[in-house]
Amino acid sequence: MKFLKLKIIISVYVCLIVLALYNTFHVYETNKQNGKQGVFAKLSTIASILSKQIDGDELQKITKDFNKKDQIKNAKQDSSYYQIHQQLKNIQKSSKITSPIYTLVRSNEPNKFLFAVTSSNKPYYLHTYHNPPSELIKNFDKGGDLDEYKDENGIWLSSFAPIKNRSGQVVAVVQIDKNFNEFLKDVNNDLINSILFIVLVYSVIGFFLYLFLKDVLKKEEAYIKTQKNYKNELEKEVKQRTNELNNANRQLVKVNSELESFFYSTSHDIRGPLCRILGLTSLAKVEDDKQEIVEMIEVESQKMDDMLKKMVLVNSIRTKEVLIEEVAVYDRINHILKQIKSKYTNIKPDIKIKIATQDLKKFHTDLEIFESIVTNIFDNSFKFSDNISPKIIINSFVDKDGIFSLTVENNGQKFSEIEINNAFELFKKANKKGDMDTIRLGLYTIKTCTDKLNGVVNISYNNGLTMLKVLLPDYYLDNSILDFYKKQLN
């Protein structure tokens, strides 16, 4: 019942509009038909009078003597042509016909006619009438009316009557046209008063209906708006809760997967050095010279200590709040490289360094995480370079967009294709034992730190060298720029 009144009022209003449109259309069509009847009555009367006034024998003589197109170029060129021309012109003027009155004769081509004498001052003598209406072709010898037809010159209402010679033979027709657009203009002018009256009556009725509908629709709009707001708020809340649950589920799955990977790697990576320490301890019990064994135990213990430090670092990075500050990239890289060199004094690699960040005024990132990335990359390059002729190539720069790029290449330790694809995943088992555990944990540490700074890391082979490349964005950089660089790297 709530919307019943509104529906009834709208239905009545629609009926009034339909009725007004029907009345307007009916009046228009009636006036149009009456107007056509008046036009045809006038045109047919004039055509009939002219057909009896025009001498058919003279017209036939003109077309016989001048039988080529445009042979008559001026109305006064031939006296007989001029006499018929004046007859047509006088009738056109006295009856206020706007279009030229003309005579048509048959063409040698089937269903085609030629213009003969016209009321126009400029003759278009024996020009072909290319698209005559079918009624003209059919009733050429009888005459008749042509209702609303289209030819190459426009849309017309026309009447035509046959012109006969003394023998009673039809030699031509005289045709009088009324431009249809002019006719419609006349009809529309006659309709203005009727349409204005209809518009006035229905406008008054519509105004009062509008006042009534306005109040009803206002109440309806307020009700719909309330319901819509309630629905939108409900959908918004449901969507938000759903997104929160989905994010929580994804995060939970990710955390569980990472915990599983971390525990697997932790037990696996620590077990190797631990087993070697236990084996060396057992060996020390039976060996007299224990100094070498102690040194080996120290090396394995150092490896285990490095692993534990990296595990602690990974855990701290995961939970650490990012602290953004301005970093002097050039100074930090050189400082870290000096520390790594002092750590591996026994390794004298052939190092080629290209660092193009000294001109950078500002780079904003978390210093601790940044240093962890660079330190682990340099440490891996020194630790796993070829033992006999180590070679390291370091290339670093910050481009105009604010992307820090660090590429480190070294010879030595080689990976299989499977190990390359899984290089940054702890839970993937390695095909090699020993140092592979340390490499894997180091790469995982680099990946964790890089992800924390919204960067990207990639490992590949280049000219026989293992190449590790890292891209880090300035903290205030537009993410779309970084996405472009990530696509280039991948």
CATH superfamily of the largest domain: PAS domain
Rg value: 51 Å
- Fraction in beta strands: 15-25%
Characterize the main sheet.
Answer: 6 strands, antiparallel
The CATH class label of the largest domain is: Alpha Beta
Extract low-pLDDT stretches.
429-435
Tell me the number of helical segments per DSSP (H or I, 4 or more residues long).
11
* Helix amount: 55-70%
The arrangement of helices and strands along the chain is HHHEEEHEEEHHEHEEHEEHHEEH
CATH-defined topology of the largest domain: Beta-Lactamase
Structural class: alpha+beta
- What is the CATH architecture descriptor of the largest domain? 2-Layer Sandwich
Within the largest sheet, what's the order of strands? Answer: 3-2-1-6-5-4
Total number of beta strands? 13
> Mean pLDDT, rounded to whole units?
80
Shape, per Cα inertia axes:
elongated
Distance between the termini: 65 Å
* Count of spatially separate domains: 2
Structure in words:
With 490 residues, this protein is α+β, with helices and mostly antiparallel strands. It has 2 domains: 4-185, Beta-Lactamase; 322-489, Heat Shock Protein 90, CATH 3.30.565.10. Helices cover 58% and strands 17% of the residues. The chain has helices at residues 4-53, 56-65, 79-94, 134-138, 180-286, 291-319, 329-343, 367-383, 417-421, 435-452, 479-489; strands at residues 102-106, 113-118, 128-129, 144-151, 154-164, 170-179, 325-326, 350-356, 364-365, 391-398, 403-410, 456-462, 465-473. It is elongated.
